[in-house]
Request: fold
Amino acid sequence: MKYFSVIFMLAVSTMVSFAVLPGNSQATVEVRAERTVPLAGVSKAITLSPDGRMVFVLTEDGQVHIYESTGGLRGMVKVGADSTDIAVSPDGSRLYVTEGSRKTLKVLELDYVVQLKTSHAPFKGPEDAPVVIVVFGDFQCPYCAKLNPLLRQVLEKYPHQVKLIYKFLPLTSIHKFSMQSAIAALAAARQGKFWLYHDGLLAVYRELSEKKLLEIGEQCGLDMEQFDRDRKDPRLVNLVREDIGEAGDNNIRSVPSVFINGRQLRSRSLKSFDQAISAELHRLGLGN
Reply:
């Protein structure tokens, strides 16, 4: 098997000169190879996702290797040895492949499945439910607040088939109390009241402050002395950071991000949830 390398990014090192300005003016660009990634085949074409996070490489044996911008292999798609070129849709959900001798264009829908850690995350619904919805959220996010009643509808509609899991992705650069809110929610979880506190936070997401965190705790009937102690426990901070790290590893950068059995749900409506849940139940042999 032959291995070839493709350079994903160029930054600063080797000197190269070329003319870019009128007359005799010249500019100098400093370049260095940031990383190289071995490829299991000869590359025929390469393209980037519009957001720059994914690199698609078409090889001569008719496969498209999909890499994260960091170099990790995300997956491979068999497209056929007659394939000559590739392109990606603006939202990254479709792959366009041209075929030479057939003079055709194939449109392939891409469905990424991620393996998320859920063993210690807060959840509601049956523990062994066949369909698992994972939500990465931020308690100061207006879209997370808007999603919450929809999630309640989904759980009411599928009481035996769906489990909801919450993961933390506080956007601390724009939301001042998002980290403190996440830690407070985990402290409430130690008293068995995560979801009650979760709903309380999202109900007043515009008004979150230290005072509000305490008020919500009192409204939830928490033991406030224990709540105060638990909020200072560094293990809770570490749990939130683990979720943040996992989100980064999977290129999850916005909230809310919703996954159904590892497949990202891009359209958030009751109809979209119904379709995705029905598809999973059918795939598992549990549909009608």
